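Hi V.,

You were right to ask for the full record rather than a summary. Here it is.
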Amino acid sequence: MQGLPIGMDDFAKVRKGNYYFVDKTMAIRDFLDNHGEVLLLTRPRRFGKTLFLSMFYYFFAAAHGKEHRELFRGLAIEAAGERYMEEQGTRCVLFLTLKDIKHRNWPDMLAKFRFLLSDLYDQYAYLMEASIFSQAERRYFQRVHDGLASPVEMEEALRRLMDMMKRYHHQPVVLLLDEYDIPVQQAWEHGFYEDCMAFMRNFLSAALKTNPSLDFAVLTGVLRIAKESIFSGLNNLEVSSVINGTYADWIGFTPEEVRALAHAQQQDAALPVLHDWYDGYRFGEQEIYNPWSVLCFFKEQGQPQPYWAHTSGNALLSELLKQTDPVQEENLLRLIQGHTVTAVLTEYTIYPELADNPDALYTILLLTGYLKIVSRRLIVDTWVYVLAIPNREVRSIYRSEILSHLSPGRTTSYLMTTMESLMAGNAQAFARGLQEILMKVASVYDTANREAFYHGLLLGMTTLLVPEYEVKSNRESGLGRYDLAIYPTHKGQCGVILEFKAAGSPAELLSKAQEARHQIDEKDYEADFRIRGIHKVLKYGIAFCGKQVVLV
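Predicted structure:
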């Protein structure tokens, strides 16, 4: 079997190393048949954007064209016809990534830009020797190359390098820019957004707007930063995002590609697990799997885990979660339960306005890969979207992120300890832990005799037990419908049934808890456990009144 290119983002290394390559080269044909001047591709992190852009580089770049042509031997673009392969190795290409521009203040970020541009210019040092350029142009080139350029000179660095490349090679330049939005995200997080935006607006607009040296440009990122903020006056921008669904199969794995990969890894039987854990994304009408997690799954011999967790920071999402109101918190808990949420999405991002837009949270969750679009409808002149969690992996990641938001100052390990007390039959320890969580995070408005709030909170907590246990909510069993049940997935473990009641006053707490416990036996909620062959079941009646709890 071929090796798996986990974490590899250089197309040539993947091909020369004989790694398994999910063939995305038909995107080159699609692009050649119908491309504009500037294309922005926005997709979630770890979905293969850099490798995709690297593939474009090796196809179009003129340097060592014959050698690069060998990289496409046997791939779909070669089979598409010679008229496409005639385009291989014919362009002057400039490839730049901003993925490492991650700094906590503007002077350090500007210094990083200076180093980055110095390294970029060093790749084209031969231009300094060309007699076609004036002394002033060569002096400018030398300053950027030596890391001595001023901020204003740096803003013009891309455009002026492209101009010199065009004049030297007698053809316009293809610009490939990876992770274009990383600097802006970092600047917003650390409080120097305006300084960074002023630089980035000039830096990118100079290269992309009415630039006669530009052949075409392809940019990648996670978020679409508002045109008015960073692409001011740029009228030639085409955007492909998870919302509009254009070029949907270019990035990420389609079901057909996953089936072929599973067959190549001799793990065809793993397809249902892959579907459950890593499928469910929808870009336009295209069903998409998370490619990073699929590759890691096969690398780990078919062991399902939330591989996508902690693959990069997400400060923007964390900040939005800190600002949630009670309605949003309830919606987030409902999402964990498998329900949907309805929102008006804004495809572009203006960072200073995020806090004032109640739907911004759902937009960011979608663009960063935590939600999927289930459906949409046009109401008057506004598109309204129905959103849901795409798969089991993301639901697992949601547990820690949302529960940590609902329980500031509490770690997942503390919550897990509380849940372990429940599963061990230590009712008093579980009740103390639950009481402390309610006192710490719940509002009196949340707990005003609303059994649904307590149900949602407990359901969110029990998902910490997945995949060792299977959690079911509001399911029929015996003669009724239980509130919450936890089924073991391994022999020897016990199951749990929980029934909730909201008391009208603290004096009613004990009687309500006893009523809930009696209901479990009266309705024979244990029946479904017996059918599954589970004979050891812990049964709890829980009563709530405001922030007080009694468990029997």
